Every structure is written in structure tokens, then in C-alpha cells.
Amino acid sequence: MKHLKKIGFYSAFILPILLVIGFYLGGWNLLIIHAFVFIMVPVMDYLIQKDRSNVPETEISEISKEKFYSLVTFIWVYVQLGILVWGFSVISSTPLSFAEWLAFSTGMALVTGGVGITVAHELGHKPEKLEQFYSKVLLMTVCYMHFFIEHNRGHHVRVATPQDPATSRLGETFYSFWWRSVKDGFFSANHLEKERLQKKGDTFWSLQNQMIQFVLAPIIFVGLLTLVFSFIQNRFTWEVPIFFFVQSLFAFSLLELVNYIEHYGMSRKLLLNGRYEKVTPLHSWNASHMVSNFLLFQLQRHSDHHAFAYKRYQILNHYDESPQLPQGYSAMIILALFPALWFKVMDKRLDEWRKRTWVEG
């Protein structure tokens, strides 16, 4: 099983391969990547036994330091940059119908958002400067660099409280959550960065302001590549920036769908001292479905990640006592798009979780 898991984490690279194959086959084949993510993966999750095994305590130190697992994420950074630049070439040189263009753009978002932001999330939690740099590069390609600030310094502090934009509320649809999380997450990151600068004695308009850097970086990135392709094709390739920003919108919307799923209705108790109880493995939804956990670098073991954010993805634990999703993220994303169905499935589970943690606990 250990060696199977190591190989399994390379399954994420299936997505860019399917995007390329789908494009060159043309027509409906552009939807191969969508069919894989939203049909094949849920079916495999359903058919294949769940993985509830954890790394033995005696092996945690060794496995957490094993370079193989970091190498997978490092390789992904270059694959994503390459596939995105290839996408710019495709979109600016190939006549596509609107349906084909939309299929290609959303397919790219499954690569850059579905896997790319997951890798950026993993790397952004690590203390090494190179890993943090790679995280920012990946977030730049989806115009969501403020996530680096808000997720680490905001979301992980305020998760499962009313103050956290990325914690979805009981009865809240994904569509209302999306607007609140995107808007308030950006403003929260801006506020956190302003506080950091004040402590250092720098002004908001300092060159040290990461928020200014994070807003400008994607614009500079796509601007330079637009110039490159315009020079190559001897015309202004307006298709490049439009494609870039549209795939970014779909990509970070995938992130917000995942946020919605991971924390729906979760809440921590407010203690007598005015503070919230410590985050535990009881405060995030989990899924132990093997296939989708391979694709998402065990992001679905989300409770352990929030309880111990420093842990690398390969040593995250499954907890039987954590609230469990009925299916993996691929299937739950589809469900979240239909509020009535989502509430019917999830509110009963949420009620059971609240009785267990608030009454019995």
C-alpha cells in the first residue's frame, strides 16, 4: 500500500494529459477531462474501498522528510506553467466555437484550480522559501494570490467561526457563499497585510505591501505573454488575456466550492473567556475516498490539516470521529451546485454532528 500511494499521487498529472488529448481529438472530446473528474472519479470513489489507514507513528518523521513527495508538487508547478502557456498558444491560434472555447477554458480551470490551487495550498503552509515561492507562482496563474495571506493568517485562525469568510453557514447556498467568501476574503487579506506593515513601520503604499504585488503580478504575467504571442503572430492577441482571466474565474470558483464543502455549517464553541475553543479534527468535513485523495494530495483529510497545519500531505491522518462526507469532493462539488439537494443530504448530517459535538461533547 505504501508504494501504491506514492505512485497514486502522480495521478494528478492525468488531468493536463486529458486536456491536451481532448483538444487534439477535437469536438466533444474537449470534455474528456470533465468526464474524468465529475463522472469517472466519483464512480471509482464509490467502487473502490475507502482508505482509512494512517502512517504509523514510528514512520511519520521519515516519511514527512522523504523528498519524493515534495518532488511531485515541485514538478506540478512547471507542468502547470507549461500547460497554461500552451493554452495561450492554442486559444490565440486556433478557431474555436464558443462551446469549444468554454469547454477548453473550464478544462484548463480543472488543471489550474482543481489541482493547481491544491498544490499551492500545500506549499503555502510550508516554512521553506522555495515552497512558498512556488505557491505564489501557482496562485498567480489563477489571479488569487491574496489566498496566500488570507488562508494562512485568516482562515486557519478563524475557521468555524462567524468571522471566517471561508466557512459556509448552515442554510447558505454556494452562490451566496461564493460572493461573500471572494469579497470578504480579499478585504480580510488586505487588512491582515496592513496590520503586518504597521508592525514593521511601513506604510500601506510601501513596495513591501504583498497585496500590491499580488494584484500586479498576474497582470504583468499575462501582459508579457500577450506581448510575446502578439509578436509571434504579428497581431494583438486579445484572446490571451480574456482566456487567462476567464479560466482564473473558474479556477478560484472551484477553490470556493471546496471551501464551501469542507466547512459547511461547522462551528466552534465560544468559551466563557470570549475566545473560541481550539480547532480540533471535529471542525471540518472529511472524505476518505482513495481516488479523489490521490488527485487532491489528501486535501480531503481536512480535519487533520486544520488541527495540525504544519503536517505535509503524505502524513495527514484519517479520524473516524471527524464529520464524514458521503462522497469525495468531485461528487460533492456537483451536489453543492444544486442547493435543494445539498441541504437535503448535508443538513441531516450536520444536525447529527452538532448533537454529537455540542450536546454529548
Keywords:
361 residues, mainly alpha, 15 helices, 66% helix
Could you walk me through the main structural features you see in this protein, from its secondary elements to its overall organization?
This protein has about 350 residues and is mostly helical. It has 15 helices and no strands. The chain starts with a helix and ends with a helix. The mean pLDDT is about 95.
Give helix % range: 55-70%
Unreliable spans are: none
Count of beta strands: 0
Q: What radius of gyration results from the CA coordinates?
A: 21 Å
Average pLDDT value?
A: 94
**Total number of helical segments?**
15
Distance between the termini: 35 Å
The secondary-structure class comes to mainly alpha
Query: Which strand-content bin applies to the residues?
Result: under 5%
Instruction: Choose one word for the global shape.
Output: globular
Give the helices and strands as they follow along the chain.
HHHHHHHHHHHHHHH
Largest sheet: none
